[in-house]
Amino acid sequence: MSRSLNDASGRRVRPGRLGWFDSHARLLYGLFGIVGFLVFWEFGSRAGIVSEYFFSRPTAIIEAGIVEVQIPRFWVDVQASLTEFIAGYGLAIVLAIPLGLLAGWYRRVQYALDPWLNFLNSLPRIALLPVIVIAVGLGLASKILVAFLGAFFAIIIPTIQGVRTVDRRYLDVATSFGASRRRVFLTVVAPSTVPFIVTGLRLGIARALIGVVTGELYAATVGLGVMIKFASDALQTDRLLFGVLLFTLTGLVGVEGIRRLEKYFQRWRPIKAGANP
Amino acid sequence: MTGTRTALQARGVRFGYVDPTSSEVLLAIERIDLEIPEGQFVSLVGPSGCGKSTFLKIVNGLLSNHEGEIELLAPKAKGSAHAMVFQDAALFPWYSVLSNVSYGLMCQGMSKKEAQARAMPLIKMVGLAGFESKYPYQLSGGMQQRANLARALTVDPEILLMDEPFAALDAQTRELMQAELLRIWAQARKTVLFITHQIDEAIYLSDRVLVMSARPGRILADIPVDLPRPRELHIKRTPEFVALADRIWELIATQLHAHGQPGA
Amino acid sequence: MTLGSLARPANRSPLGLLGWRPSERLVFGLIGFVVVLGAWEAASQLKLVKKVVLSSPSLIWDAAITDISSGVIFPHIAVSGTEYVLGLGLALLVGVLLGLSIGLFRRLNYLLDPWLSALYATPTVALVPLIIIIFGIGLEAKVVVVFIESIFVITVSVMAGVRAADAVYHDVAQSFRASGWMRFRTVTLPASTPYLLTGVRLGTGRGIVGVVVAEFLTSNSGIGFYIGLNGSLLQTARVYFGIILLGILGLVLGELVRVVERRFERWRPQIN
C-alpha cells in the first residue's frame, strides 16, 4: 500500500488517521464528477449555455431510449450488432490464442510471420472495409470479418510476446526435472502467458467494437450503427447519443468480464499494492 | 556416512561460450576434476563469476556442449540421477506449494494423486505442513526455499545440486535455514554438491570445501572439514572454524587481488 | 559449445556485420514474406481467388505506378496528412497536459476516473456522426475525429507514467529538499517519458484509424476517400494501394517513435 500513502505530488498521507471522507474520497469525487457533469449538461442545455441541438441533454437521451426500446426494429438492431461482435471477437479468440502460442513457441515460425504481422498490425485494418464488402456483401458477415480483424491482431501480438518472454528460470526448473516439451508448454509456457493473453483480450474488445461500429456506419442495413446513422441523418442527437451509450455499455460489460476472468486466472498473483477495487 | 561408491566424478570438464554482444570467446571453466563419494556434503566456493554455477548446470544437464566427462550414479528404479535446488527458489508462481513440490514426480509420468501423496511427507519434513495449498507469493523467502528443497527431494535424486539457495535470504533466516538443511540432510542421507560464495556457510554445512579460482574457473584447493557432526550454529565461533574460514578467505582474496577486483 | 566451436568467430564474415542469430531472423522473415507474396500472386493468376476481392501483388504494383505517375494520389495524401498532423498535434498537446494534471492531482483523477473508464470502453468512432453534425464535413470534422481517436491513449499513458515514478525516488528528492518543480523535473518527468512515448505510438495508430473512418463516412478527398471510392468502383488494386500507403505511414511513424524511445531509454539496461 506504500504508493497510496504517498500521492504523486509527494505529499504524505498519514495512515490510521483517515476520516470517513478521506477513505471514501475516490468514490465521492467520482460520484461528484458524474453527477456534476450530468447536472451541468442538463441545466446548461435547458438554459441555453450548452447547445441542445448539438449535444442534446441527459433526460432527452433517456426519453429517446425509452421510446426506442418499444420499437421492435430496435431489438433487431441490437441482435445484429451483438451477433457481429460476439462472432467476430469469438473467432479472433479461437484463432489468435492457439496461433500466437504456436508462433511464440517455434522461433522460426515467428520469424517467418514477423514481417506480415508487423505490417498488418500497423495497418488500419478498418481500411479493408470496402474490399470486405465486395467480398462478402453488406450482411452480418462483413461486420464479423472487420471485428475479427481488429481483435485478432490485438490478441495474437501480446500472446506471441508472452511466450517469448517466459522466465528462463522456470524453463530451467522444468528441464532439470526432465519435463517433456509438451509438459513444459502446459505447465510453464501456458500459465506464464496468461497475463499477456488477458491484455490482448481486453484490447480486443475495443478493437472488435470499433470494427462493428465502423462497419455498420459504413455499409449495413441493420445494427445499432445503422440506427446511429439514421438518427444523425435526421439530426436526432438524443437518439444518436442513446446508441453511443449502448456501445459504451457493451464495452464496459466486456471489460468487466475480462477483469473477472483475469481475477480467476491470476489467483496465484499477489494483490497489487494500492490497487483499488 | 561416506559410502564406497562414487556419486559424482568429473574429469577434465572445460566450458566456454561466445559472448553474444562482443562475440569474444569467454572461457568460463578452465578445468575441473573432482570426485564426490556417496553421502558426502561438498561445497564449491569461489568469487562471483568463477563458473561454479555453470559447473552445476553442466552436472544437471542444463548446459551441454562441454568438454570432458561427468559420471553420475545410475538412479534407483523410481528415482532420479540428480535434482537441482534453484537459486531464488524459482517456484512456479501459478502453482500451489503441493503442486510445485510434486512437479518432478509428475514429470516422470506419475499420476497427480500419487505424486501429491508422495510429496506430502517431504513437505512435512521441510516444515511446511499446513502450507500445501498456499501460492508461492504467500510464503516468506525461507519458506520458499524449504519448498524448493522439498521439490528436489521428492524425485529421490542420487545427488542433490544446490545453487546458492540461501543467497537471497536475510542473515538470520539464512543461519536458520543452514541449520535446517543439516537437519534435513541428516534425515534424507543425500550426496550434496552445494554452491555458495559464503565461506562460513560452506564450512558449516560441508564435509569438504572446494575453492575455485576466478574466471576461468579451476579448483584451487580441496579442504576437508573435520568438525564433528551434528553441528550447532555456535560452532561457527570456535577457533577451528575461524581458522578454516581464514584459510579459505586467503585463497579467495589472492584471486580477487590477482584480478584487480576491489574487495568483495 | 564445444571447444571446436570456440574458434568460430575467426571464421565469420570479415565485416562481422551479420551474426548467426539476426541472419536466421532475416532468412526466415524473407522466406515468410516471399512465400506469402508468391502464393498470393499465384492464386490470383491461377484464378483460385477472385481478382476483384484479393487483387494480386502485380496488379497492386501497376495501380501504384499509374496513380503515382499521373499524380492522382498526391492531393489525397496532402489532405489526409493535414488532417492527421493537426489532429494528432492537438491531441498530443492536450493529452500530455491532461495526463500530467490527472497524474499529479489525486482529486482530479478521482473526479475524472469514471468518465475515463467509460470513454475507454466506448468505440469513439460511434461519435463520428455527431461530430459531422457539429463540425460539418470539412477539415475541422476530420481533425476532431483524429483528435478524439488519439487523445485518449495519450492521456491514459501519461497518467500511468506519472504514477510509475517509484515512491522511493520521490523520497530521495524530498530528503534533499527538492522543490516541487525540481521533483517534477528530475523524478516525475524522466519516469513518465517511456509511458508518454508508448502513448504517442499508440496514438499515431489510432489517429490513422480516425482519418480513415472520418474520410470513409464523409469526404471528397483524402486517402480514406480514395480507398472508399475505388472500393465502390470495384478497383480493388487501388484499394490495396491506399491501404499499403497507410500501412507504410504507420510503420514509419512507429519506427520514428521507437528511435526517440531509444534515445530516452539509454539509462535502462538492455534486456536480452
Indicate the CATH topology of the largest domain in chain A: MetI-like fold
* Main CATH class of the largest domain in chain C: Mainly Alpha
C-alpha-based Rg of chain A, rounded: 24 Å
CATH architecture of the largest domain in chain A: Orthogonal Bundle
- Shape of chain C from CA axes? globular
- How many DSSP helices of chain C? 13
Question: What is the N-to-C succession of helices and strands of chain A?
Answer: HHHHHHHHHHHHH
Would you tell me the overall average pLDDT of chain C?
83
Distance between the termini of chain C: 19 Å
The structural class of chain A is: mainly alpha
The whole-angstrom Rg of chain C is 24 Å
Describe, in plain words, how this protein is organized in 3D:
The complex is a heterotrimer of chains A (277), B (264) and C (272). Chain A has 13 helices and no strands. By secondary structure, chain A is mainly alpha-helical. Chain A has two domains: 1-50, no CATH class; 62-265, MetI-like fold (Orthogonal Bundle). The model of chain A is unreliable at 1-14 and 273-277 (pLDDT under 50). By secondary structure, chain B is an alpha/beta fold. Chain B has two domains: 6-76 and 159-258, 3-Layer(aba) Sandwich (Rossmann fold), CATH 3.40.50; 92-155, no CATH class. Chain B has helices spanning 52-60, 97-101, 103-107, 112-125, 141-154, 171-188, 199-205, 239-258; strands at residues 6-18, 25-37, 41-45, 67-72, 80-85, 157-163, 191-196, 208-212, 217-224. In chain B, helix 4 packs across helix 5. Chain C has 272 residues and is mostly helical. Chain C folds into two domains: 20-49; 66-264, MetI-like (MetI-like fold, Orthogonal Bundle). Helix content of chain C is 81%, strand content 0%. Chain C contains 13 helices and no strands. The longest helix of chain C has 38 residues, at 180-217. In chain C, 42% of the residues are buried. Mean pLDDT of chain C is 83; it is low at 1-20. Classes of the chains: A mainly alpha (277), B alpha/beta (264), C mainly alpha (272). Chains A and C meet through helix 3, helix 7, helix 8, helix 11 and helix 12 of A and helix 3, helix 7, helix 8, helix 10 and helix 11 of C.
